[in-house]
Every structure is written in structure tokens, then in C-alpha cells.
UniProtKB/TrEMBL annotation:
Gene name for this UniProt entry: ribT
Coiled-coil regions listed in the entry: none
Domain (N-acetyltransferase): residue spans on this chain: 3-117
Entries under PANTHER family matching the protein: PEPTIDYL-LYSINE N-ACETYLTRANSFERASE YJAB
Known EC number: 2.3.1.-
Entry protein name: Acetyltransferase
Organism superkingdom: Bacteria
InterPro entries on file: Acyl_CoA_acyltransferase, GNAT_dom
Organism: Priestia megaterium (strain ATCC 12872 / QMB1551)
Length: 117
């Protein structure tokens, strides 16, 4: 289940985002977190399974009808279980009136999700 990011999840969110290749550098990761916390057009969602938060997906709302997926990350011990695909599907269910497209970095994964539908 997708839940909206809150400040008390910051360490978990940073940990999950640090698995994204473009977010390896601490300063870059901190800038990204700041963007999600301060920019009203950027939203971060965590994937909660039972009591554990095991995935994260970040979006930017380019306008009311267009959303770009910026980040997708799943805890390595939970990969290859379809969690990323479930997060993308949940985003589509959440934003039914908007077109959802991947950022350049996320595109290969996003296209794989589409092919598997």
C-alpha cells in the first residue's frame, strides 16, 4: 500500500532513495529530499507491506494532467517480487485523470512494467 511521505519517515526514505544510482552522493540525496519536502509539486510515497516500509516512489506534477515518475526504489532484500510494479500500478490508481510518464532515468523500468501488464 502506498502511503504519503511524512518527515518522521526521513531516514527510511533516504535509505531507500540511496539505492537509486543517481542518489548515491550524500549531498545529492539531501538535495533530493529537500525538494520532496519543500516543493509542493514533488510528492514522495512509501510502499508499506505489513509493518515494513520496503519501497519508495517519487513523482513531480508537471501540471494537473501530467505526472512524471522521478524515483522508484525497492529494498534489495525485497526485489524481484513485483513491488516496483505494484507501486506504479498504485500511482495509476491514485492519479486516474493524469497521464503518468517516466523520467529518463526511470524509463527502462517503467517500460518493463508496461510490458508485463
Amino acid at each position: 500500500m502506498l502511503i504519503r511521505y511524512k518527515r518522521n519517515y526521513e531516514k527510511i526514505a533516504m535509505g531507500l532513495l540511496s539505492f537509486v544510482p543517481t542518489e548515491k552522493d550524500l549531498k545529492k540525496l539531501q538535495q533530493t529530499m529537500k525538494e520532496y519536502e519543500q516543493n509542493e509539486h514533488w510528492q514522495l510515497y512509501l510502499w508499506k507491506q505489513e509493518e515494513d516500509i520496503i519501497g519508495i516512489v517519487g513523482i513531480s506534477m508537471l501540471d494537473k494532467s501530467l505526472i512524471e515518475v522521478q524515483h522508484v526504489s525497492v529494498n534489495p532484500s525485497h526485489r524481484q517480487q513485483g513491488i516496483g510494479k505494484k507501486m506504479i500500478k498504485a500511482l495509476k490508481e491514485m492519479y486516474t485523470t493524469a497521464q503518468i510518464k517516466p523520467s529518463e532515468i526511470i524509463a527502462p523500468f517503467y517500460e518493463k512494467c508496461q510490458a508485463d501488464e
